[in-house]
């Protein structure tokens, strides 16, 4: 029924039809619901069971693992604070819905999930709608199809946001990421910066209080609590424990995700499970992941050997760098972006190692930015074409010498 309806209105969206300017929107709905009718029938192309749409859906599905845990964790951390405060009297539309559907019991999985959903879903909805409008607008002007790449950009940007980020800033951030980070360069496949990280970096520098202040990491009005990463920068690790605002934080707590932070960045375990799936499907490059880990480990070990009496971050072991901040999230979902990352196998090693080295350098040496993975990836994005160029030239010279 739906297939027949779409076929009946399709001529109106082709050239000469009265809705031809909206072809990109029609095509996005049609291919989103059904398999495209245009398929390669000759032997001139490599045939594979996976295409761009399936790649993006697979990445999106893996990112949703972090989203579901993030919603539960937001609710759990917030309900613990509310229980400690001894009050459930809060204003705002979110709490009106929460009060109608559930309560504020941290022992209830449902209560925690609903509470977290009231903060994540609006952020994701604003991201998807505003970013999608920009995508459709540029596709319509250029006469192109709407690319599925935004499907992933939207979820990654939303998961990288603090849970208490104002929705108008969410709209500004994704607008900057899509327009300036991708569309001005020609769209998907032509951007040299990761769009989701570009939008987050814009917010980080333009509105730092809303992206790095102690009050933005928990979804409870009036509560202030520093993240584990900022505590590491100021106090370091004491007897294997980080003295975070919400209480002592062990490495296992951080690995499992039992801490404050951006929506989808807290659970290293969940993120690594998603990473194994993506690398097993050969969607994410294991060379980039391994290179980033090696760069991070080597640099942190060097700082550990040097030591410092004034900078506690010098003495933070590499395995703490892995589980705090957005390192794991960036490692799996951001560094492996197939467009902005290096393309050659050897170039991927160099690209990943540069990210690992720069992450620790920014975290340890630069006191203004306790988080380093975001800036490190954007920095490495600029060098990815250079790595590929030198690798290709080296291969050409070696083959010429061989011949």
From TrEMBL:
<keyword id="KW-0813">Transport</keyword>
<dbReference type="Pfam" id="PF03116">
    <property type="entry name" value="NQR2_RnfD_RnfE"/>
</dbReference>
<comment type="subunit">
    <text>Composed of six subunits; NqrA, NqrB, NqrC, NqrD, NqrE and NqrF.</text>
</comment>
<feature type="transmembrane region" description="Helical">
    <location>
        <begin position="149"/>
        <end position="169"/>
    </location>
</feature>
<keyword id="KW-0285">Flavoprotein</keyword>
<feature type="transmembrane region" description="Helical">
    <location>
        <begin position="318"/>
        <end position="336"/>
    </location>
</feature>
<feature type="transmembrane region" description="Helical">
    <location>
        <begin position="348"/>
        <end position="366"/>
    </location>
</feature>
<protein>
    <recommendedName>
        <fullName>Na(+)-translocating NADH-quinone reductase subunit B</fullName>
        <ecNumber>7.2.1.1</ecNumber>
    </recommendedName>
</protein>
<comment type="function">
    <text>NQR complex catalyzes the reduction of ubiquinone-1 to ubiquinol by two successive reactions, coupled with the transport of Na(+) ions from the cytoplasm to the periplasm. NqrA to NqrE are probably involved in the second step, the conversion of ubisemiquinone to ubiquinol.</text>
</comment>
<dbReference type="InterPro" id="IPR004338">
    <property type="entry name" value="NqrB/RnfD"/>
</dbReference>
<feature type="transmembrane region" description="Helical">
    <location>
        <begin position="288"/>
        <end position="306"/>
    </location>
</feature>
<keyword id="KW-1278">Translocase</keyword>
<feature type="transmembrane region" description="Helical">
    <location>
        <begin position="55"/>
        <end position="75"/>
    </location>
</feature>
<keyword id="KW-0520">NAD</keyword>
<dbReference type="GO" id="GO:0016655">
    <property type="term" value="F:oxidoreductase activity, acting on NAD(P)H, quinone or similar compound as acceptor"/>
</dbReference>
<keyword id="KW-0830">Ubiquinone</keyword>
<dbReference type="InterPro" id="IPR010966">
    <property type="entry name" value="NqrB"/>
</dbReference>
<keyword id="KW-1003">Cell membrane</keyword>
<feature type="transmembrane region" description="Helical">
    <location>
        <begin position="259"/>
        <end position="281"/>
    </location>
</feature>
<dbReference type="GO" id="GO:0022904">
    <property type="term" value="P:respiratory electron transport chain"/>
</dbReference>
<dbReference type="GO" id="GO:0005886">
    <property type="term" value="C:plasma membrane"/>
</dbReference>
<comment type="similarity">
    <text>Belongs to the NqrB/RnfD family.</text>
</comment>
<dbReference type="GO" id="GO:0006814">
    <property type="term" value="P:sodium ion transport"/>
</dbReference>
<keyword id="KW-1133">Transmembrane helix</keyword>
<keyword id="KW-0997">Cell inner membrane</keyword>
<keyword id="KW-0406">Ion transport</keyword>
<keyword id="KW-0472">Membrane</keyword>
<feature type="transmembrane region" description="Helical">
    <location>
        <begin position="372"/>
        <end position="392"/>
    </location>
</feature>
<keyword id="KW-0288">FMN</keyword>
<feature type="modified residue" description="FMN phosphoryl threonine">
    <location>
        <position position="227"/>
    </location>
</feature>
<keyword id="KW-0812">Transmembrane</keyword>
<keyword id="KW-0739">Sodium transport</keyword>
<keyword id="KW-0915">Sodium</keyword>
<feature type="transmembrane region" description="Helical">
    <location>
        <begin position="113"/>
        <end position="137"/>
    </location>
</feature>
<keyword id="KW-0597">Phosphoprotein</keyword>
<dbReference type="GO" id="GO:0010181">
    <property type="term" value="F:FMN binding"/>
</dbReference>
<dbReference type="GO" id="GO:0055085">
    <property type="term" value="P:transmembrane transport"/>
</dbReference>
